[in-house]
Design goal:
This protein is an alpha+beta fold. Helix content is 33%, strand content 16%. A hairpin with a 6-residue loop joins strand 5 and strand 6. The protein starts with 28 loop residues before the first helix and ends in a 7-residue tail after the last helix.
Protein backbone atom coordinates (compact mmCIF):
# COMPACT_ATOMS: atom_id res chain seq x y z
CA UNK A 1 0.00 0.00 0.00
CA UNK A 2 1.37 3.40 -0.99
CA UNK A 3 0.51 6.07 1.57
CA UNK A 4 0.61 9.83 1.27
CA UNK A 5 3.53 11.65 2.97
CA UNK A 6 2.84 13.45 6.22
CA UNK A 7 3.62 17.12 5.85
CA UNK A 8 2.65 20.60 6.91
CA UNK A 9 1.15 22.81 4.23
CA UNK A 10 2.88 26.06 3.47
CA UNK A 11 0.03 28.00 5.06
CA UNK A 12 1.11 26.65 8.45
CA UNK A 13 4.76 27.56 8.04
CA UNK A 14 6.21 30.76 9.42
CA UNK A 15 7.13 33.08 6.55
CA UNK A 16 10.40 34.99 6.90
CA UNK A 17 10.18 38.65 6.00
CA UNK A 18 12.52 39.63 3.17
CA UNK A 19 13.66 36.05 2.62
CA UNK A 20 14.46 35.23 -1.02
CA UNK A 21 15.85 31.67 -0.82
CA UNK A 22 15.77 28.86 1.70
CA UNK A 23 18.91 27.91 3.61
CA UNK A 24 19.32 24.68 1.65
CA UNK A 25 17.78 25.65 -1.70
CA UNK A 26 21.07 25.64 -3.59
CA UNK A 27 23.04 23.11 -1.59
CA UNK A 28 25.05 20.59 -3.64
CA UNK A 29 22.92 17.63 -4.73
CA UNK A 30 25.15 15.14 -2.92
CA UNK A 31 24.61 16.92 0.39
CA UNK A 32 20.83 17.19 0.03
CA UNK A 33 20.54 13.55 -0.99
CA UNK A 34 22.92 12.07 1.61
CA UNK A 35 20.01 10.91 3.86
CA UNK A 36 18.34 9.38 0.79
CA UNK A 37 21.48 7.38 -0.01
CA UNK A 38 21.68 6.04 3.55
CA UNK A 39 18.00 5.07 3.50
CA UNK A 40 18.43 3.47 0.05
CA UNK A 41 21.22 1.24 1.38
CA UNK A 42 19.15 0.24 4.41
CA UNK A 43 16.07 -0.55 2.30
CA UNK A 44 18.25 -2.45 -0.19
CA UNK A 45 19.40 -4.72 2.64
CA UNK A 46 15.84 -5.09 3.90
CA UNK A 47 14.46 -5.98 0.45
CA UNK A 48 17.60 -7.82 -0.70
CA UNK A 49 17.89 -5.71 -3.84
CA UNK A 50 19.87 -2.57 -4.56
CA UNK A 51 17.89 -1.79 -7.72
CA UNK A 52 14.34 -2.62 -6.62
CA UNK A 53 13.06 0.99 -7.15
CA UNK A 54 13.84 0.60 -10.85
CA UNK A 55 10.69 -1.53 -11.16
CA UNK A 56 8.38 1.24 -9.93
CA UNK A 57 7.13 2.08 -13.46
CA UNK A 58 7.47 -1.33 -15.13
CA UNK A 59 6.94 -0.20 -18.74
CA UNK A 60 9.78 2.32 -18.55
CA UNK A 61 13.46 1.36 -18.72
CA UNK A 62 14.77 1.71 -15.15
CA UNK A 63 11.34 3.15 -14.21
CA UNK A 64 12.49 6.49 -15.65
CA UNK A 65 15.25 6.91 -13.06
CA UNK A 66 18.02 7.87 -15.50
CA UNK A 67 18.57 7.96 -19.26
CA UNK A 68 14.82 8.20 -19.76
CA UNK A 69 13.50 8.82 -23.29
CA UNK A 70 10.75 11.44 -23.17
CA UNK A 71 9.49 10.25 -26.54
CA UNK A 72 9.28 6.63 -25.40
CA UNK A 73 7.38 7.58 -22.23
CA UNK A 74 4.90 9.96 -23.88
CA UNK A 75 4.32 7.60 -26.82
CA UNK A 76 2.78 5.12 -24.39
CA UNK A 77 -0.03 7.58 -23.58
CA UNK A 78 -3.49 7.00 -25.02
CA UNK A 79 -6.91 8.61 -24.70
CA UNK A 80 -7.17 11.54 -22.29
CA UNK A 81 -3.47 11.48 -21.48
CA UNK A 82 -2.43 11.66 -25.14
CA UNK A 83 -4.90 14.50 -25.73
CA UNK A 84 -3.56 16.45 -22.74
CA UNK A 85 0.05 16.17 -23.90
CA UNK A 86 1.29 19.03 -26.06
CA UNK A 87 1.96 17.59 -29.56
CA UNK A 88 5.58 16.76 -30.38
CA UNK A 89 7.74 15.10 -32.98
CA UNK A 90 10.99 13.21 -32.42
CA UNK A 91 13.98 13.67 -34.72
CA UNK A 92 17.21 11.67 -34.68
CA UNK A 93 20.36 13.57 -35.68
CA UNK A 94 21.78 12.11 -38.88
CA UNK A 95 24.52 12.75 -41.46
CA UNK A 96 22.58 15.43 -43.35
CA UNK A 97 23.47 19.07 -42.83
CA UNK A 98 21.84 20.77 -39.82
CA UNK A 99 19.99 23.09 -42.24
CA UNK A 100 18.50 20.15 -44.14
CA UNK A 101 17.50 18.47 -40.90
CA UNK A 102 15.95 21.67 -39.58
CA UNK A 103 13.89 22.01 -42.77
CA UNK A 104 12.76 18.39 -42.45
CA UNK A 105 11.83 18.89 -38.77
CA UNK A 106 9.75 21.96 -39.56
CA UNK A 107 7.89 20.13 -42.34
CA UNK A 108 7.28 17.13 -40.06
CA UNK A 109 6.16 19.42 -37.24
CA UNK A 110 3.71 21.26 -39.50
CA UNK A 111 2.12 17.95 -40.48
CA UNK A 112 1.62 17.33 -36.73
CA UNK A 113 0.02 20.75 -36.27
CA UNK A 114 3.13 22.33 -34.74
CA UNK A 115 4.20 25.69 -36.13
CA UNK A 116 7.12 27.98 -35.37
CA UNK A 117 7.93 29.14 -32.80
CA UNK A 118 8.14 25.85 -30.91
CA UNK A 119 10.22 24.26 -28.18
CA UNK A 120 13.29 22.19 -29.04
CA UNK A 121 14.66 19.89 -26.32
CA UNK A 122 16.70 16.71 -25.88
CA UNK A 123 14.86 13.40 -25.87
CA UNK A 124 17.16 12.21 -23.08
CA UNK A 125 18.01 14.84 -20.50
CA UNK A 126 17.09 16.24 -17.11
CA UNK A 127 16.94 19.46 -15.08
CA UNK A 128 16.03 21.58 -18.08
CA UNK A 129 19.27 20.87 -19.98
CA UNK A 130 19.28 21.96 -23.61
CA UNK A 131 15.73 23.33 -23.81
CA UNK A 132 15.32 26.14 -26.35
CA UNK A 133 12.55 28.22 -27.86
CA UNK A 134 13.22 28.29 -31.61
CA UNK A 135 11.55 30.80 -33.90
CA UNK A 136 13.37 30.28 -37.20
CA UNK A 137 14.81 27.52 -39.35
CA UNK A 138 18.32 28.90 -38.76
CA UNK A 139 17.84 28.81 -34.98
CA UNK A 140 16.69 25.19 -35.17
CA UNK A 141 19.65 24.28 -37.39
CA UNK A 142 22.00 25.84 -34.85
CA UNK A 143 20.39 23.81 -32.04
CA UNK A 144 20.58 20.58 -34.05
CA UNK A 145 24.23 21.15 -34.98
CA UNK A 146 25.53 20.46 -31.46
CA UNK A 147 23.78 17.10 -31.06
CA UNK A 148 25.96 14.05 -31.77
CA UNK A 149 24.87 11.82 -34.63
CA UNK A 150 22.28 9.31 -33.43
CA UNK A 151 21.01 11.50 -30.58
CA UNK A 152 17.33 12.42 -30.61
CA UNK A 153 15.58 15.72 -29.97
CA UNK A 154 11.96 16.73 -29.62
CA UNK A 155 10.15 19.62 -31.28
CA UNK A 156 7.05 20.41 -29.21
CA UNK A 157 4.15 22.81 -29.64
CA UNK A 158 4.14 25.90 -27.45
CA UNK A 159 1.51 25.85 -24.72
CA UNK A 160 -1.58 28.04 -24.91
CA UNK A 161 -0.90 29.31 -21.40
CA UNK A 162 2.05 30.84 -19.57
CA UNK A 163 1.50 29.64 -15.95
CA UNK A 164 3.13 26.29 -15.11
CA UNK A 165 2.78 23.86 -12.25
CA UNK A 166 4.56 20.67 -11.17
CA UNK A 167 2.10 17.91 -10.22
CA UNK A 168 3.54 14.93 -8.36
CA UNK A 169 1.42 11.83 -8.84
CA UNK A 170 1.49 8.40 -7.20
CA UNK A 171 -0.81 5.44 -7.94
CA UNK A 172 -1.47 2.71 -5.40
CA UNK A 173 -1.05 -0.66 -7.17
CA UNK A 174 -3.29 -2.40 -4.62
CA UNK A 175 -6.32 -0.20 -5.31
CA UNK A 176 -5.44 1.25 -8.72
CA UNK A 177 -6.27 4.72 -7.36
CA UNK A 178 -4.00 7.66 -8.13
CA UNK A 179 -3.33 10.68 -5.98
CA UNK A 180 -1.79 14.13 -6.40
CA UNK A 181 0.59 14.37 -3.43
CA UNK A 182 2.43 17.57 -4.35
CA UNK A 183 1.61 20.73 -6.30
CA UNK A 184 4.10 23.50 -7.04
CA UNK A 185 3.82 26.72 -9.02
CA UNK A 186 6.80 27.34 -11.35
CA UNK A 187 7.65 30.93 -12.21
CA UNK A 188 10.24 32.07 -14.75
CA UNK A 189 11.59 35.41 -13.45
CA UNK A 190 12.30 38.44 -15.60
CA UNK A 191 13.26 42.12 -15.45
CA UNK A 192 11.87 45.21 -17.18
CA UNK A 193 14.14 47.79 -18.82
CA UNK A 194 14.19 51.47 -17.91
CA UNK A 195 16.39 52.78 -20.72
CA UNK A 196 19.19 53.51 -18.24
CA UNK A 197 20.45 50.29 -16.65
CA UNK A 198 22.05 47.22 -18.22
CA UNK A 199 20.55 43.77 -17.89
CA UNK A 200 23.23 42.88 -15.34
CA UNK A 201 22.36 45.94 -13.25
CA UNK A 202 18.65 45.21 -13.39
CA UNK A 203 19.25 41.62 -12.29
CA UNK A 204 21.51 42.80 -9.46
CA UNK A 205 18.76 45.13 -8.20
CA UNK A 206 16.24 42.28 -7.92
CA UNK A 207 16.10 40.81 -4.40
CA UNK A 208 16.20 37.15 -5.47
CA UNK A 209 17.75 37.28 -8.94
CA UNK A 210 20.60 39.41 -7.57
CA UNK A 211 21.68 36.47 -5.41
CA UNK A 212 21.61 34.10 -8.38
CA UNK A 213 23.40 36.12 -11.07
CA UNK A 214 25.75 33.22 -11.78
CA UNK A 215 22.77 31.16 -12.99
CA UNK A 216 21.75 33.77 -15.57
CA UNK A 217 24.95 35.40 -16.82
CA UNK A 218 26.30 32.55 -18.97
CA UNK A 219 22.95 32.10 -20.76
CA UNK A 220 22.35 35.83 -21.25
CA UNK A 221 25.92 36.92 -22.02
CA UNK A 222 24.94 38.52 -25.37
CA UNK A 223 22.63 40.95 -23.56
CA UNK A 224 24.31 41.00 -20.14
CA UNK A 225 25.86 44.45 -20.56
CA UNK A 226 23.19 45.90 -22.86
CA UNK A 227 20.92 48.70 -21.65
CA UNK A 228 17.34 47.47 -21.94
CA UNK A 229 14.89 49.89 -23.54
CA UNK A 230 12.17 51.51 -21.44
CA UNK A 231 9.47 48.88 -20.85
CA UNK A 232 11.45 46.07 -22.53
CA UNK A 233 10.77 42.81 -20.73
CA UNK A 234 13.59 40.26 -20.54
CA UNK A 235 12.90 36.77 -19.31
CA UNK A 236 15.83 35.37 -17.33
CA UNK A 237 15.03 31.71 -17.95
CA UNK A 238 12.79 29.98 -20.50
CA UNK A 239 12.82 26.48 -19.03
CA UNK A 240 11.14 26.62 -15.61
CA UNK A 241 13.83 24.54 -13.94
CA UNK A 242 14.84 25.37 -10.38
CA UNK A 243 18.55 24.75 -10.88
CA UNK A 244 18.49 27.32 -13.72
CA UNK A 245 16.89 30.05 -11.65
CA UNK A 246 13.13 29.47 -11.82
CA UNK A 247 11.12 30.25 -8.69
CA UNK A 248 9.03 27.49 -7.11
CA UNK A 249 6.12 28.08 -4.73
CA UNK A 250 4.41 25.41 -2.66
CA UNK A 251 0.80 25.09 -3.90
CA UNK A 252 -0.41 22.02 -2.01
CA UNK A 253 -3.22 24.11 -0.55
CA UNK A 254 -4.67 24.23 -4.10
CA UNK A 255 -4.95 20.46 -4.47
CA UNK A 256 -8.71 19.92 -4.77
CA UNK A 257 -10.84 16.79 -5.24
CA UNK A 258 -11.66 18.06 -8.75
CA UNK A 259 -7.99 18.44 -9.69
CA UNK A 260 -7.13 15.06 -8.20
CA UNK A 261 -9.99 13.39 -10.10
CA UNK A 262 -8.94 15.05 -13.37
CA UNK A 263 -5.31 13.94 -13.03
CA UNK A 264 -6.40 10.44 -12.05
CA UNK A 265 -8.53 10.16 -15.21
CA UNK A 266 -5.71 11.47 -17.38
CA UNK A 267 -3.06 9.21 -15.90
CA UNK A 268 -5.29 6.15 -16.16
CA UNK A 269 -4.48 6.35 -19.88
CA UNK A 270 -0.74 5.99 -19.29
CA UNK A 271 -0.40 2.24 -18.70
CA UNK A 272 1.56 0.94 -15.70
CA UNK A 273 2.69 4.41 -14.61
CA UNK A 274 2.73 4.62 -10.81
CA UNK A 275 5.14 7.35 -9.82
CA UNK A 276 6.32 10.63 -11.28
CA UNK A 277 5.76 14.32 -11.92
CA UNK A 278 3.81 16.08 -14.62
CA UNK A 279 4.93 19.53 -15.76
CA UNK A 280 1.68 21.22 -16.74
CA UNK A 281 0.61 24.55 -18.24
CA UNK A 282 -2.76 25.97 -17.16
CA UNK A 283 -4.95 29.01 -17.87
CA UNK A 284 -5.49 30.33 -14.34
CA UNK A 285 -5.65 29.13 -10.74
CA UNK A 286 -9.42 28.70 -10.75
CA UNK A 287 -9.20 26.45 -13.82
CA UNK A 288 -6.33 24.50 -12.25
CA UNK A 289 -8.34 23.85 -9.08
CA UNK A 290 -11.17 22.55 -11.27
CA UNK A 291 -8.75 20.34 -13.20
CA UNK A 292 -9.46 22.17 -16.45
CA UNK A 293 -7.37 23.70 -19.28
CA UNK A 294 -4.41 21.42 -18.46
CA UNK A 295 -1.67 21.03 -21.07
CA UNK A 296 1.07 18.53 -20.19
CA UNK A 297 4.54 19.62 -21.26
CA UNK A 298 6.39 16.61 -19.93
CA UNK A 299 6.05 13.54 -17.72
CA UNK A 300 8.99 12.57 -15.51
CA UNK A 301 9.54 9.11 -14.04
CA UNK A 302 11.27 7.70 -10.99
CA UNK A 303 13.91 10.45 -10.66
CA UNK A 304 11.25 13.17 -10.32
CA UNK A 305 11.02 15.28 -7.18
CA UNK A 306 8.10 16.72 -5.26
CA UNK A 307 9.38 20.18 -6.10
CA UNK A 308 7.45 22.05 -3.40
CA UNK A 309 10.54 21.39 -1.28
CA UNK A 310 12.30 24.18 -3.22
CA UNK A 311 9.88 26.86 -2.02
CA UNK A 312 11.90 29.57 -0.25
CA UNK A 313 9.85 29.01 2.92
CA UNK A 314 10.31 25.24 2.97
CA UNK A 315 11.95 23.79 6.07
CA UNK A 316 14.94 21.49 5.77
CA UNK A 317 13.47 18.74 7.95
CA UNK A 318 10.22 18.72 5.96
CA UNK A 319 12.14 18.59 2.68
CA UNK A 320 14.24 15.64 3.84
CA UNK A 321 11.13 13.83 5.10
CA UNK A 322 9.53 14.31 1.69
CA UNK A 323 12.56 12.93 -0.16
CA UNK A 324 12.79 9.95 2.18
CA UNK A 325 9.09 9.24 1.69
CA UNK A 326 9.55 9.36 -2.08
CA UNK A 327 12.26 6.72 -2.08
CA UNK A 328 10.43 4.50 0.42
CA UNK A 329 7.52 4.65 -2.02
CA UNK A 330 9.79 3.63 -4.89
CA UNK A 331 10.98 0.60 -2.93
CA UNK A 332 7.37 -0.24 -2.03
CA UNK A 333 6.30 -0.08 -5.67
CA UNK A 334 9.32 -2.09 -6.75
CA UNK A 335 8.53 -4.77 -4.16
CA UNK A 336 4.95 -4.99 -5.43
CA UNK A 337 6.05 -5.50 -9.03
CA UNK A 338 8.68 -8.04 -8.02
CA UNK A 339 5.88 -10.03 -6.39
CA UNK A 340 4.13 -9.98 -9.76
CA UNK A 341 7.10 -11.80 -11.27
CA UNK A 342 9.32 -8.95 -12.51
CA UNK A 343 13.08 -9.02 -11.93
CA UNK A 344 15.00 -5.86 -10.90
CA UNK A 345 17.54 -4.70 -13.51
CA UNK A 346 21.25 -5.03 -12.83
CA UNK A 347 23.65 -2.33 -11.66
CA UNK A 348 25.55 -2.43 -14.96
CA UNK A 349 22.43 -1.42 -16.85
CA UNK A 350 21.88 1.50 -14.48
CA UNK A 351 25.46 2.68 -14.92
CA UNK A 352 25.23 2.34 -18.70
CA UNK A 353 22.11 4.56 -18.84
CA UNK A 354 23.67 7.08 -16.45
CA UNK A 355 26.79 7.34 -18.61
CA UNK A 356 24.68 7.79 -21.75
CA UNK A 357 22.74 10.66 -20.19
CA UNK A 358 25.90 12.36 -18.94
CA UNK A 359 27.62 11.99 -22.32
CA UNK A 360 24.66 13.43 -24.21
CA UNK A 361 24.18 16.32 -21.80
CA UNK A 362 27.69 17.61 -22.58
CA UNK A 363 26.59 18.23 -26.19
CA UNK A 364 23.31 20.02 -25.53
CA UNK A 365 23.00 23.72 -26.39
CA UNK A 366 22.83 26.13 -23.46
CA UNK A 367 19.34 26.38 -22.05
CA UNK A 368 17.68 29.76 -22.39
Amino acid sequence: MVTEPVHETSTNQARSEGKTTSVFEFWPTWLMYAPVVLQWLWLALKHRSLTLPLLANPRLPLAGMVGESKHELMSQATGLCRNALLPWICHQRNAQSPQQQARHCIEQAERAGIKLPFVCKPDIGCRGAGIRLVSTEDALAEAISVYPEGASLLCQKLASWEPEVGIFYVKDPDTGRGQVVSLTYKHSPGVTGDGVHTLQQLVARDARAGELQHLYESRLKQDWHRVLDQGERKRLVFSASHCRGAVFKDARADITPALNASIERIMADLPDFYYGRLDVKFADIDSLRKGQTLEIVEINGASAESIHIWDKDARLLDAIKTLLWQYRTLFSLGAYHRQQGLTPPGIRRLIRHWRLEKRLTRHYPETE
